[in-house]
Amino acid sequence: MFRLTVFVFFLISALISIHFFKDLTQTFIKETYAQHAPYAYPTPAYTTPAPAVPFVTISANPQALIVGGNSTISWTTGNMPAGVTCSNNWNAFLIITPNTSGSDIRAIYNDYTFTVSCSNGYSDSVAVTAIIPIPSTPTFTYAAGACPAGSENSYGNVTWSSVPYASGYELVRDGYGSFGTGVYYGMLDYSVADSGMNALYYIRAYNQSGSSPWGYVYVAIPDCLTPAAYSINTPISSCLGINSPNLAVGINSSAHANN
């Protein structure tokens, strides 16, 4: 009887244990699934792909150069919808085809901003700078003083060479000042009249970037005045005869004479 009682006790205990562990296992599985199932098995969401964004790019090489040099302008347009047109602002004969790349070589004489624009509102620009160098110093090509025929006033005569990138020249004489600025290549200086001096002339070139160093030259200015010249004429009408001797004297003079 005791053995039967013990057997029944263990049987009941086993059944209770099995039921407990079953409930525990189910609870664990439910909790684990609740925590991890959404991440392990995500539901894919359908999204419509965004359309590609149109673009325009433009560049210049080089972007700064000495005036008169060449720069290569390059551009690319992309993702342009059908029906869009593109244009440029520097060459009316150049066709910009949408969704392509291209280049154009341009001589640069002034600062300029190159632009490619498309009809859907997209555009891009690049600025190119034309560098104007400061001009070099001009060289005197002729420098002399002279006395003009028929005039008592001497003058200085100077000429000089043109130099690249110069927009004008300035001539100065020491002790006198500037003769002004402008596009000229020589000067007759009558302000040195009858001086007999060594005149010192300076010349420089200039443009919007600045001025060259001064060049100079000495010019010997002659004195065109000479002492008064006289001539004496002595016609004798008669030395002998009835009448007394008659002496006629003519005097020609001039205050100045040319050399």
Kindly describe this structure.
With 259 residues, this protein is α+β, with helices and mostly antiparallel strands. The chain folds into 3 domains: 1-42; 55-131, Immunoglobulins (Immunoglobulin-like); 140-220, Immunoglobulin-like, CATH 2.60.40.10. The chain is 15% helix and 41% strand. The chain is built from 1 helix and 19 strands. The protein has one helix at residues 2-40, and strands at residues 55-61, 64-66, 70-78, 86-88, 101-107, 112-118, 123-131, 140-146, 155-160, 168-173, 177-182, 186-189, 198-207, 210-211, 215-220, 229-233, 236-238, 246-247, 250-254. Strands 10, 11, 13, 14 and 15 form a 5-stranded antiparallel β-sheet that branches. A 4-stranded mixed β-sheet has the order 2-7-6-4, with no helix packed on it. Residues 227-232, 236-242 and 247-259 have low confidence and may be disordered.
Which percent range describes the beta-strand content? 35-45%
Instruction: Give the number of DSSP strands.
Output: 19
Write down the overall mean pLDDT: 80
- Tell me roughly what share of residues is in helical segments: 10-25%
Major sheet characteristics? 5 strands, antiparallel
Q: Give the number of helices.
A: 1
Uncertain segments of ≥5 residues (pLDDT<50)? 227-232, 236-242, 247-259
CATH domain class of the largest domain: Mainly Beta
State the CATH topology of the largest domain. Immunoglobulin-like
What would you give as the CATH superfamily of the largest domain?
Answer: Immunoglobulins
| Structural class computed from helices and strand pairing | alpha+beta
- Rough shape? rod-shaped
Q: Secondary-structure element sequence? A: HEEEEEEEEEEEEEEEEEEE
Distance between the amino and carboxyl termini: 172 Å
Question: How many structurally independent domains?
Answer: 3
Return the CATH architecture of the largest domain. Sandwich
Radius of gyration: 53 Å
